[in-house]
Request: fold
Amino acid sequence: RPRSMIAVFSPAPFSRPALAGRLNGAGLKTAIIERGRVGGTCVNVGCIPTKALIGSARAAHKARQGEAIGI
Reply:
């Protein structure tokens, strides 16, 4: 059986792993080629880490308010 590979190019780096996963799930061989970190800025230093930091800060803020609500 001939072997072939699909190269995934996308202007949105965060979509590449999802697309490669779907193609792989369909039985196709895939490769993700990145110049830097896989996933790009959003996944590594932008959106997702920022949301995690904001969520942690919100949880800490709520924990500090426990005494005011009787905890």
